[in-house]
Amino acid sequence: MQHRAKKRFGQNFLHDKSIIGRIVSSINPQPGENIVEIGPGLGAMTIPVLDCCKKMTAIELDRTLIENLEKMSASIGELSLQQGDALKFDFSELPSEPKLRLIGNLPYNISTPLLFHFMKWADQIQDMHFMLQKEVVQRMAAGPGSKTYGRLSIMVQYYCQVVPLFEVHPGAFNPPPKVDSAIVRLIPHVQPPVKVDDFKFFAELVTSAFNARRKTIRNSMKKYLTEEQIQGIGIDPQVRPEQLGLAQFADLANAALELKE
């Protein structure tokens, strides 16, 4: 199909067959699974996945691609196409058993909002396999002390185990993006790895800390906790946010919430 990639949709179409094969192998789709593809595009990944599982759902924003996807998939299996914006899609409308397996080459310009949107349904998701900008995958997987560690690292790791799989060169796409890409596997935790008394407040505190990431915790947390209160939790008030792990941020948020209440 001749289709001009639309910049407003963040379209970069995957065409490298060896990369597509590695992605499908990593997903390992099986019949009977509840697979949902975000942004199938020209169907480069859709068709081989559908050939394995025989039934799947795809959410595509660009309505001009729908007819071609329907024609391509007709002889392969049952493809349920949902035309719409994945950022607004209510995943509770899909069957919840078996759990969802999300896959896709996410538009890089909205990848972070999409990830946070998907996390709302983490308890209904078995796993996720996404193509993302390499830098985003590095940030998601980063640990304390790393230059790439930040708010995204903490929030994604609260919900999921992050497993970077392999990198993808720009030439694997048409048009080639200006950045390197990577495939990541996200596996939602059965139980959160830390206890958070109020998730919304926890997210607010983490955001506040990394909005002032060059400041010490004593300064960036002063609207929540005093230096003495931070010390009382067992955290050095002189450290910067990127030096604290997920559990320490949970401790800060729980302590600040208790004082607030």
Q: Overview of this structure, please?
A:
The chain is α/β, with parallel strands linked by helices and 261 residues long. It is 35% helix and 20% strand. It contains 10 helices and 9 strands. It has a 7-stranded mixed beta sheet. Strand 3, helix 3 and strand 4 (78-83) form a beta-alpha-beta unit. Helix 4 (111-119) packs parallel to helix 6 and helix 7 packs across helix 10. The longest helix is centred in the C-terminal third of the chain and has 15 residues, at 246-260. The chain starts with 12 loop residues before the first strand and ends with a helix. The relative contact order is 0.11.
User: How many DSSP-defined strands?
Assistant: 9
Overall shape: it is: elongated
Order of helices and strands: EHEHEHEEHEHHEEEHHHH
Strand percentage lies at 15-25%
Helix amount: 25-40%
Major β-sheet profile: 7 strands, mixed
Report strand order across the widest sheet: 4-3-2-5-6-9-7
- Please, what is the average pLDDT? 92
Number of helices: 10
Low-confidence stretches: none
Gyration radius over CA: 20 Å
How far apart are the termini? 59 Å
Q: SS-based structural class?
A: alpha/beta
Keywords:
two-stranded antiparallel ribbon, alpha/beta
Spell out the blueprint of helices and strands.
Elements: E1 13-14, H1 17-27, E2 34-38, H2 46-53, E3 55-60, H3 66-73, E4 78-83, E5 100-105, H4 111-119, E6 125-133, H5 134-141, H6 151-159, E7 160-168, E8 173-174, E9 181-188, H7 199-211, H8 217-220, H9 227-233, H10 246-260
